[in-house]
């Protein structure tokens, strides 16, 4: 397919003029941020001799403002996140490394469901966080070049434009975009790894890399490392940066939480008879209301199936007198929401359902209130508070914690998971970042106490087989929490009023 030259000129008229690139040694921060280049599609060269340009040359491997102004504002590389913010992230990441260290960040491989049937592509989270580049067959190389913030170099290996291949596989961004859109200091074809990478890492004081044994680039990169060098893990360097969200990240997470929360409230308005239908409704609602889609496979668990923490079959019938436990959230600009709600299928709680629900809700609200910097508490400390709170609430409902096995074990039977986890680019964000860290402004976490009552004689008869989990995504602020998912109603009166 080709597009007439006139169409190309029309596209050019609407785009921002490129500014003169500033080299790395000229980078300035805080008061005079590095000017970010904007992309101008390459014009057909006069030497080409014909008046059309391949469709692939006007397309990129991901939205850019010039082609997708309905998704990205000028200056943004991914929704809400500017090229300048990505630049600042790389600067802070490089600054955290030892002098002259190099970090290698391979792009995620495309994953296959069955031969030739691939899953939607998802970039590796640390590379995504540091570059916004969304393609496979890629490698970012970030080197600390000096002692000051901003003293670093950024090389990006990726696929060069290839009209013939892109006709089959869809567009990718190419080498010019690597420098002009993603602000790499230098771009290299991924096929040149073995000739170019050794020069980039030869004199490195240390090499940081995550090279899973099953990754397609690991076999290519390992032999190029200086002999005797064992790469150090990247996560401990990136996690402290990723864990504290910027204002732009919090805005994305709030947007995501607001729409996700509304979708759950919309679901609660209706009477559902099949888990599958509720699942389908939420998937549609997330996308239709402006999110990119669901963040994870939701749990839609009617009745006793709610006791299965990661039940995702979502194919049973919902009994009218039971509750349904839904754990579902959407994703926006790669930031996710994680929400759980439990509500009566009929719209009205039975007595025992309400008693157990309100017990969990009181503990959930109390734990959310603890998510402020001024409390100086970690997720682990809030978990202990949740256990204590649930034990007291359940005791007042007639649960016996004293007679066998000891109180501590019994609460772990009823509430077997942690009260929360970090949330951000990943649902279980910053893996490896401890839950003993005192929460600070910008930490985003879930608060999700639950009670799952086994169907046996150890427990009060009325509560046997019930399952309740209530979960919000919360951003920690200095004096209090910001509940990112407040639009998902959770008070008993509000849930019941939805059907009045
Ligand atoms: Mn969760």
UniProtKB/TrEMBL annotation:
GO terms for cellular component: mitochondrion. GO terms for biological process: proteolysis. Its cofactor is Mn(2+). Its EC number is 3.4.11.9. One of its GO terms (molecular function) is manganese ion binding. Pfam families: AMP_N, Peptidase_M24. SUPFAM superfamilies: Creatinase/aminopeptidase, Creatinase/prolidase N-terminal domain. Residues 81-218 form the Aminopeptidase P N-terminal domain. Gene3D superfamilies: Creatinase/methionine aminopeptidase superfamily (3.90.230.10), Creatinase/prolidase N-terminal domain (3.40.350.10). InterPro entries: Aminopep_P_N, Creatin/AminoP/Spt16_N, Creatinase/aminopeptidase-like, Pept_M24, X-Pro_dipept-like. Keywords: Aminopeptidase, Hydrolase, Manganese, Metal-binding, Metalloprotease, Protease. Catalyzes the removal of a penultimate prolyl residue from the N-termini of peptides. Belongs to the peptidase M24B family. PANTHER family: XAA-PRO AMINOPEPTIDASE 3 (PTHR43226:SF4). This is Xaa-Pro aminopeptidase. It comes from Echria macrotheca.
């Amino acid at each position: 397919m080709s597009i007439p030259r006139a169409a190309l000129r029309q596209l050019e008229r609407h785009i921002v003029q490129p500014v003169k690139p500033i080299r790395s040694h000229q980078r300035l921060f805080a008061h005079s941020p590095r000017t970010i280049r904007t992309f101008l599609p390459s014009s057909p060269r006069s030497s080409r001799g014909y008046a059309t340009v391949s469709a692939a040359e006007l397309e990129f491997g991901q939205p850019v403002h010039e082609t997708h102004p309905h998704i990205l504002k000028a200056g943004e590389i991914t929704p809400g996140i500017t090229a300048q913010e990505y630049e600042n992230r790389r600067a802070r990441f490089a600054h955290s490394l030892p002098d002259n260290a190099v970090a290698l960040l391979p792009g995620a491989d495309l994953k296959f469901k069955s031969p030739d049937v691939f899953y939607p592509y998802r970039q590796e989270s640390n590379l995504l966080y540091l570059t916004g580049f969304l393609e496979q067959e890629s490698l970012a190389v970030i080197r600390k070049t000096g002692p000051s913030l901003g003293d670093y170099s950024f090389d990006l290996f990726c696929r060069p434009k290839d009209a013939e291949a892109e006709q089959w596989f869809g567009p990718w961004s190419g080498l010019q975009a690597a420098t002009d859109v993603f602000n790499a200091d230098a771009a290299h074809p991924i096929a040149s790894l073995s000739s170019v990478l050794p020069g980039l890492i030869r004199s490195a004081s240390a090499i940081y890399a995550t090279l899973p044994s099953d990754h397609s680039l690991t076999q290519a990169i390992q032999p190029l490392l200086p002999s005797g060098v064992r790469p150090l893990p990247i996560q401990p360097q990136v996690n402290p940066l990723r864990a504290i969200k910027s204002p732009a990240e919090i805005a994305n997470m709030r947007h995501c939480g607001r729409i996700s929360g509304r979708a759950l409230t919309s679901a609660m308005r209706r009477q559902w008879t099949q888990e599958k239908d509720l699942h389908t409704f939420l998937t549609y609602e997330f996308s239709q209301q402006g999110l990119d889609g669901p963040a994870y496979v939701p749990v839609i668990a009617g009745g006793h199936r709610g006791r299965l923490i990661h039940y995702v079959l979502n194919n049973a019938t919902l009994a009218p007198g039971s509750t349904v436990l839904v754990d579902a959230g959407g994703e926006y600009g790669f930031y996710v929401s994680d929400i759980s709600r439990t509500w009566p299928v009929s719209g009205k709680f039975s007595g025992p359902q309400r008693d157990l629900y309100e017990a969990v809700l009181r503990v959930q609200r109390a734990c959310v209130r603890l998510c402020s910097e001024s409390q100086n508490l970690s997720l682990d400390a809030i978990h202990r508070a949740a256990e204590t709170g649930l034990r007291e609430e359940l005791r007042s409902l007639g649960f016996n914690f004293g007679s066998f096995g000891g109180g501590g074990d019994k609460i772990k039977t009823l509430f077997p998971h942690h009260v929360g986890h970090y949330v951000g680019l990943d649902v279980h964000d910053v893996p490896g970042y401890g839950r003993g860290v005192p929460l600070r402004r910008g930490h985003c976490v879930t608060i999700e106490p639950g009670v799952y009552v086994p169907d046996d004689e150890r427990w009060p008869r009325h509560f046997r087989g019930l399952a309740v989990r209530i979960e919000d995504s919360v951003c920690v602020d200095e004096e209090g929490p910001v509940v990112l998912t407040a639009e998902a109603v959770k008070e008993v009166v509000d849930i019941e009023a939805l059907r009045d």
